Amino acid sequence: MTNKILLAFLTFLTLNCYAQSKKINDVNTFILRNTGAILDKNKDVDGYYFYYVVDKLKKGDREFAIQILDKNLVEVAKKSYVDNKYTFLMKSSFNNQNMMFAMANFKTKEINLLSFDKQANQKEVINIPLENKEIKYLQLMQQSGDFNVLFPVENKGFLFNKLEDNKKIGYSLKYYPTDGGKAWEYNSPSDSKEIFAINPIEVNEKVVVALESSKSSLLSRKFMLKTKVIDVNTGLLLYEKEYSKNSKPRLINNAFLDKDNNVVLMGEYFKEGDNIYSDKSLGLFTEVIDITGKTIKENFTSWLVDVAKIAKTKGNYIEDKGYIYFHNIARTNNNEYYAIGEFYKRTASASGIAMTVLGGGRSGSTVTQLTITNSVVFKFDSNFKLTGIQEFEKGKSRAPSLSDFGSPQLNAHALKSYGAFDYEYTQLDKANDRFYACFIDYERLKGEKNKNAFKTIIYDEGKLSEDKIYLASENKEFRVMPAKVGNILLLEYDKKAKEINLHMEKLNIN
Question: Which of 195, 219, 241 is the last residue before a domain boundary?
């Protein structure tokens, strides 16, 4: 009897260990962003999906595959289908019920939204025709490799953000339910003489928080910026906030819901009369707004006084350390907030200056760059008062400025979509009151070869610590993804061998 129990235990252990690595073969073409984690209702990792080209067929067709693994890397389903070679994946997303893939084909002038359930069973295809002007805009987005078009609404549906070719340029937010709810659209004015664009910065089961910008022409440097809050169930505008140059100039970076379902806006505030696109901010602000649009409370944290005092920095904190791009806000069980970010400064670019000199000023290169340095975490209490700052050392990385004009903050917002920062993701573990904020750092080591390091800032029992794993990925494309709590998933794509290798690694935490 004892031997049988031991054999059963060893069999279980062997299967469990085996499931922590996986190889996907016959991968003809794969782009790292064409994969993602499947999350459960508690936002824990429940599995993964992969989209790739299996084979090149006759007459310009391609065989595509969608493969789904569970959280232990065991295959759940795999489906393949044939499409035109000009079709490419713009964006993929998962809303805990379904996966949606936004597929574009500029030759046939259309976008098709393909959706699948967790067993890879395909749902009805949604076809969106494209106009010539819309295609030109999407081709510009294609250069960055990031299409800001598809957003999951947890357990409800998907939101698609489409450029509209009307009298000038507008937008259309299109909501597609997966729970049997009502589809809706929210559009910019079709008869307006202004150019409109919208960027959803928070999409949840209650509301869509989006930043709408408008200007008279493409070359105009005068913007009007509004924050719109839309009911995700009906598509109706609940309220909007306008922060103008002469009345509360603010640059909003983050939005989320507090424990009472109020909308919290967080960003940088400026002096009255300052331009948020060119002037320096005075500090950070938070604004809590109820469902009617009424401001419940505001909190202001100045760089010069409040931040410098806690950081024990003489003078202006920003001039000393640099600006901060906050990627995410994590709320703990005791209702404290941790803002996770990276320092950056605008500096001179030697290569940009050289290209400009060689090109006689006509090279098109910028002479400045963003230099990104350490990670930093700001701690706020339940009333959003700053109570702590903790910095984590990280090597420098650089990204050419998109423009030498405008503020460093404006360039940082634009470069975020180009993957300029080292931040990867934040994973919450509500059951154990932990969070994991993850970065990739290129370490320059003395006396040995430089290495890529995956660094994780871990919040546990009220304290922050850091764990590090070196990534060995010579001549291979790699990506690090969230895994079941306390682990990470290392993905390597070997183009020559036409395979994807997956390996789960445990973080250094009990």
Answer: 241
- Residue 354 pLDDT grade (very low, low, confident, very high; cuts 50, 70, 90): very low
| Residues 6+ away with beta carbon under 8 Å from 173 | 159, 160, 161, 162, 185, 186, 187, 198, 200, 208, 210, 230, 235
Contact 212, 228 (CB under 8 A): yes
Residue 318 banded pLDDT, cuts 50, 70, 90 = confident
Decide if 177 is inside a domain: yes
| Token pair for 461 | 């029992």
Q: How confident is the model at residue 104 (pLDDT cuts 50, 70, 90)?
A: very high
Q: Which residues of 318-350 are buried (b: 16+ CB within 10 A; e: fewer)?
A: beebbbbbbbbbbbbeeebbbbbbbbbebeebe
The range of the structural domain enclosing residue 77 comes to 31-134
> Among residues 85, 106, 134, which one ends one of the domains?
134
Is the confidence at residue 55, as pLDDT, over 80?
yes
**What's the domain count of the chain?**
3
**The two structure tokens encoding residue 510:** 């009990």
CB-based contacts of 355, cutoff 8 Å, min separation 6: 363, 365
* CA–CA gap between residue 20 and residue 142 (Å, rounded): 35
Q: Are residues 127 and 69 in the same domain?
A: yes
DSSP label of 280:
P
Distance CA 270, CA 247 (A): 10
Q: Please check whether residue 479 lies inside any domain of the structure.
A: yes
pLDDT tens digits, one per residue of 452-465:
889 999 999 999 99
Average of per-residue pLDDT values in the chain:
84
- 18 within a domain of the structure (yes/no): no
If asked whether residues 75 and 101 sit together in one domain, one would say yes
* Coil, helix or strand at residue 186: strand
Which two tokens mark 230?
A: 């839309």
Q: Is residue 72 within 8 Å of 16, Cβ to Cβ?
A: yes
- What integer is the mean pLDDT of 492-508? 90
User: Is 39 domain-assigned?
Assistant: yes
The model carries a pTM of 0.83
**125 in the same domain as 159:** no
- Phi, psi dihedral angles at 410 (to 5 degrees): -65, -45
35 and 64 in one domain? yes
